[in-house]
Amino acid sequence: MIDLRSDTVTRPTAEMREAMANAEVGDDVYGEDPSVIELEEHAAQLAGKEAALFVTSGTQGNQAAVLTHMRQGEELIMDDRAHLFLYEGGATAAFAGVQSRTLSSEKGQILPADIAGAIRPNDVHFPDTGLIWLENTHNKSGGSVLSADYLKEVKALADRYGIPVHIDGARIFNASIAAGVPVEEFARHATTIQFCLSKGLGAPVGSILAGDRAFIERARKWRKRLGGGLRQAGVIAAPALLALKNGFDFISQDHEHASILAEAISNMEGLTVMNEVETNMIMMDTFETGLSSEDWVSELKKQNILAVSFGPFTVRLTTHRDISRTDISRATDGIMKALHQLKG
Ligand code: TLP
Fold first, then answer.
1. What pLDDT is attached to residue 324?
2. N or C: which end of the chain has fewer CB within 10 A?
3. What percent of the chain has pLDDT over 90?
4. Per-domain residue ranges for the chain?
5. Nearest alpha carbon, ligand 1 atom 9
6. DSSP β-ladder status, 308-311 and 314-318
7. 170 lines ligand 1 (CB under 6 A)
8. What is the pLDDT of residues 77-129, one digit of tens each?
9. What is the pLDDT of residues 246-268, one digit of tens each?
10. Hey, whose CA ends up nearest to atom 5 of ligand 1?
11. For residues 199 and 250, what is the distance between their CA atoms, to the nearest angstrom?
12. Which pLDDT score is estimated for 55?
């Protein structure tokens, strides 16, 4: 199977498994796991923030961020295709009791004027705007990169109103490689950032939430409330630390693979690539073939390709560390075969 469902599907490398086996551990709820402490310190440094918290998932990191930044009844500004809005089970409503104010965006970039227009005036009738949310790379538009300049502009705007900015940087390493901008440079334009260790980096589990020390201490309590107080978590922190320390230049290969595959798909009659492939995702439009994305996903499976439906006629294909150049050639052949089968 060529698994292009997500970059979350990678398996730990032999080196990572070795790091897991040899990890020094302790009880992290007591703050005694040396591997977790090292990972958090390293991650904070990488993001240019005072402190960082190791969380079980991107979702937990995002939710801990919302809960720490906001109070019930406040309003959260984000784009209407944000992962937080679409794919986290309504957690912000369920846990934080905040209201979502969603705005349209161009590949995840909401116009600063629209953000400014959505910030609530101080009036007894209105909720207070408690947080501005951006996602980099932007998943739903196919892994688009939000530039550091754009982030800077939004942060300057938010600062004028005294509102914090959070970046859901689940794929900030992809953004960093694609734009040639260090993670720290992106994170500088945000109050807090969450990034995933289990996606492009290929670590098996976990994410990081980074911010200033006081924020992270409060987030630590929210993590505990959310059931994320882990014990000998060093066994999962160690492979993540390895991934961070070894550098992530290898991600450029995932991007190259995505553009090769996208190019091949765009030459197939009836199929279109909807996004400009900037990182590791391809949004394949199946409309012209007259078949839904679900039909396509089933047919691709018969050709040993796993993909996900990302809309009625949109199939998402995601490259990652476990996909080789040969897999890309095989995937190209498989998609071609599926096209012939489906067209009859
Ligand atoms: N995204 C997953 C699915 O949930 C859609 C994927 O396969 O892309 N922020 C962003 C931008 C994400 O894409 C994801 C995962 C998360 C947060 C949540 O991370 P996890 O899965 O670790 O909770």
1. 98
2. C
3. 97
4. 7-246, 249-343
5. 170
6. antiparallel
7. yes
8. 999 999 999 999 999 999 999 999 999 999 999 999 999 999 999 999 999 99
9. 889 999 999 999 999 999 999 99
10. 87
11. 13
12. 98
Amino acid found at 106: E
Q: How far is the CA of 112 from the centre of ligand 1 (A)?
A: 25
Task: Check pocket membership of 319 for ligand 1, CB cut-off 6 A.
Answer: no
d(CA 179, CA 168): 17
* Pair of tokens at residue 236: 């999962």
Q: How confident is the model over 158-173, as a mean pLDDT?
A: 98
Q: How far does residue 89's CA lie from ligand 1's centre (Å)?
A: 12
CATH of domain 7-246: 3.40.640.10
pLDDT band at 342 (very low <50, low <70, confident <90, very high): confident
Q: Which CATH superfamily is domain 249-343 in?
A: Aspartate Aminotransferase, domain 1 (3.90.1150.10)
Q: Which atom of ligand 1 is nearest to the CA of 198?
A: 22
What tokens does 10 get?
């990678």
Mean pLDDT score of the chain: 97
